[in-house]
Amino acid sequence: MRRVTILVIIMTALVAFLALTAMAQEAKEEAKEEVKEEAKEEIQHDFVGAKKCKICHKAQFTSWSETGHATSFDKLTDEEKAKPECVTCHTSGNLAKDSSLMEGIQCEACHGAGGDYKSAKIMSKKKWAADPETYKKMAIDAGLVYPTEENCKSCHKKEGNPNFKEFDFAKMKGKVHTMSEEGK
Ligand code: HEC
Ligand code: HEC
Ligand code: HEC
Ligand code: HEC
Questions:
Q1: What is the tens place of the pLDDT at every residue in 70-118?
Q2: DSSP for 19-31, written as a single string
Q3: Which end of the chain, N or C, is more open, meaning fewer C-beta atoms within 10 Å of its C-beta?
Q4: Could you tell me the distance, in angstroms and rounded to a whole number, from the CA of residue 68 to the centre of ligand 3?
Q5: Distance from Cα 74 to the centre of ligand 2, integer Å
Q6: Cα separation of 115 and 93, whole Å?
Q7: pTM: predicted TM-score of the whole model, two decimal places
Q8: Which stretches of 2-157 are DSSP H helices?
Q9: Ligand 1 lined by 103 (C-beta under 6 Å)
């Protein structure tokens, strides 16, 4: 009799254990899925590089090429180029994904990763001219950024920047490249 009781207790414990393990496993899988989804949300758009923007925005590209932003990676020594604490503000793209890291402060460092908004379905001269509000909204939804002072100050700040100069957004804004009024 006693042996049977012990057996029943052991069986019950085993079933409970298995059920708990299964639940724990399920919870783990769910957590993994959640993290994956969150990561996917963060990596929303691919970086394409300034040469892709040049195809349609020649004036901005040419004037940008002459600024310090275009060559800001070249200003670092070979030793500094190997230091993440220097590379971070002298490149564009996501440091966590080496494949998308681009040298210099390219268009997308300010305007957001262009993999989706650069599409001619959105950035079409004809369609945009006919309905600018709709297409501007579509571009913003696809990742286009109209940079603000805050965007600039992610790099133009004292912390970590050994060459810091006071940053006056109103004065600096017009120096990043020629704007359409001045010819496109
Ligand atoms: C297929 C051609 C094409 C490509 C490629 C392209 N654009 Fe555009 N883009 C346009 C057109 C057309 C407009 C609509 C406004 C205009 O006519 O200039 C526009 C609008 C914009 C605007 C908003 C302008 C405004 O007046 O509101 C920005 C900023 C911009 N593009 C940046 C970029 C960047 C950065 C890239 C590269 C990642 C890029 N574009 C790639 C054609 C293109
Ligand atoms: C927080 C962003 C940031 C970090 C980190 C950073 N820099 Fe810079 N760097 C800038 C900015 C912005 C400028 C332009 C000067 C300014 O307006 O502050 C600049 C300018 C420079 C220049 C050009 C100076 C000149 O006057 O022509 C050199 C060289 C340079 N940085 C080297 C470095 C080195 C080396 C490191 C790592 C120790 C580093 N930077 C880290 C943002 C940064
Ligand atoms: C990803 C980092 C980063 C961002 C974002 C950034 N900058 Fe810079 N900026 C730099 C660095 C680095 C330099 C120094 C370039 C050099 O001379 O080597 C610089 C230099 C400049 C210069 C001097 C350019 C020259 O030709 O000497 C101006 C003007 C400027 N930035 C304006 C802006 C404005 C306006 C914004 C926002 C709309 C902005 N920057 C956003 C990193 C950045
Ligand atoms: C350092 C930041 C910065 C970089 C780099 C940059 N831009 Fe801009 N861009 C701006 C700012 C600031 C504006 C003005 C936004 C506003 O007025 O709201 C602007 C406006 C624009 C506009 C709309 C105004 C116009 O000229 O018609 C276009 C198009 C544009 N940028 C394309 C580009 C392209 C293409 C590149 C790369 C070759 C580039 N930008 C690089 C900051 C930048």
A1: 999 999 999 998 888 898 899 988 654 555 678 999 999 999 999 999 9
A2: HHHHHHHHHHHHH
A3: N
A4: 7
A5: 11
A6: 12
A7: 0.87
A8: 2-42, 50-54, 58-65, 78-81, 84-87, 107-111, 125-130, 132-141, 149-152
A9: no
- Between the CA of 150 and the centroid of ligand 1 the distance, in Å, is 22
* Closest ligand relative to 55 C-alpha: 1
Superfamily of domain 50-182: Flavocytochrome C3; Chain A (1.10.1130.10)
What is the number of the ligand closest to the CA of 108? 1
Residue ranges of the domains in the chain?
Answer: 1-42, 50-182
Say if ligand 3 is within 6 A of residue 89 CB: yes
User: In this prediction, what percent of the chain has a pLDDT beyond 90?
Assistant: 60
* Ligand 3 mutation pick, 155, 171, 175, 177, max ligand atoms within 8 A of CB: 155
Confidence of residue 29 (pLDDT cuts 50, 70, 90): low
Q: Which residues on neighbouring strands pair with residue 102, listed in sequence order?
A: 92
Gap between the Cα atoms of 176 and 153, Å rounded: 14
Return mean pLDDT, the chain: 86
- 107 CA distance to ligand 4 centroid (A)? 7
